[in-house]
Amino acid sequence: MAVYKRSYRAYEGPVTSPAERILVLARYAWAEAWASKITIALFILCLVPCLISLVGIYAANNPLVRSLINGKASELINVDAGFFLKVLSGQCWLALVLLSWVAPRVITFDLADSALPILLSHPISRFGYLFGKFLALFATLSIVTWIPCLGLFIYQGYTSTLPWMAGNLRIAFGILAGSFIWIILLSILGLALSAWVKWRVVATGVIFAAVFIPAGVGAIASAVLRTRWGFLLNIPYMITLVWQRLLGAPEHFNTDNFLPNGSIACMLTLACLVCFAMLNQRIRAREVVRG
Predict the structure, then answer these.
(1) What pTM was estimated for this model as a whole?
(2) From CA 123, how far away is CA 126, in angstroms rounded?
(3) Is position 97 within any domain?
(4) 89, 181, 205, 219: which has the fewest C-beta neighbours closer than 10 Å?
């Protein structure tokens, strides 16, 4: 039969729901992120501190180990809010290293290969596209932050001879809330910067620069102007304060540099809004080429 004699009609078969379309993007973004051997090596590196902490918790609570070292294990390793603050901080900063490698792989390839207009020509919105990528990053960072930290918390409650877990639920809540805040901030930041830098290696460096360069500028501004408000540009300082206050750990910073919770929340929200504006400008279904 000739082509012009064929009659065409719209597709009438089953259609996936919008949520399933987002999960498809998340699944392929996850596969792309973990397709590199470097990702696996970084993941193993991120779990090494957790294994060391696991051994420390075992030594602090095991009677045989305490007797072998003259009962000083509990003095050398005090498993409290300060201990879990160190564990959480270490895991979250290692998550930044992992994100700097994974985030460009998730989104940069779509932009470099001009695949974004093709993807957005399908029945999926820009929000759905970005949310699918966000879910892949969120899941990737979760397995090196709050999941192993909560595992250590549960193990400490299991091995402790005292009813430790019930009296320290704030630590578990702080681990969960602090990790979520950090993961959301890093994921949005990684997507925004990767969307504007097509070269993956450069994007990795830009992510680190976006976290630490404003911190240096803020520290200089605080020292020159003799004010504490310059630390609002210091993401590492602000997020450490958030972790300390959520876990109930003692604050080790100078009290003269105290930042209210409201100001920290406003600055972190502002950073996310700037990233959203960058994504809104960059992620489009068409590309304008100027001659």
Answers:
(1) 0.88
(2) 10
(3) yes
(4) 205
